[in-house]
Amino acid sequence: KKKHRSEMPIDVITTTEGVDFTKFIVLQSNDHPTPMQFKVSREAAKMSGLIKDMLEDQEGDAIIPVPNVTGRTLKLVLSYMEHHHNNRAQPIEKPLKGKIEDVIDSWDKEFLFTDLVKNHDEKQHETLIDVIMAANFLNVKDLLDLTCACVASMIKGKTPEQIRALFNIENDFTPEEEEKIKEENRWCEES
Question: What's the pTM?
Fold first, then answer.
């Protein structure tokens, strides 16, 4: 039986006293003035290429600061890692042919559209972007693939104007530059 998302709490701890560092590590978020500390199994933590490399170079108690990631975001990344370290996600086909929700399991679907994209409303994607940045920094390949495929699914079929509106991207092209780019790339619309 697959575990439901909420059955896998990520341990936020206030002290590292009593942590069995043979089985666990502690990751510290960048929250100021008090970083959040998370107790994570060594096995799950190794889904992060960055942490895996650090653990190979480190003896003894592993308390690792994660300078680029807030506690709220780190908790989401860790819940993904705890769920998938013994249960790897199926690779997502590239390029994505349909909608992301049609090619992922129910846990990932709930994770994406409940936690990362609030209420399945693609305009509420700030957390998704934060998790992409954290997954990239920590080098959690499967999570990066999942979240980037979600963004690909969100922009699929949209015009450049709709994409700019969705992600609050300023159009810094002059009308002349934009026309030139459209002209140079007309061939890809014809196929």
Answer: 0.84
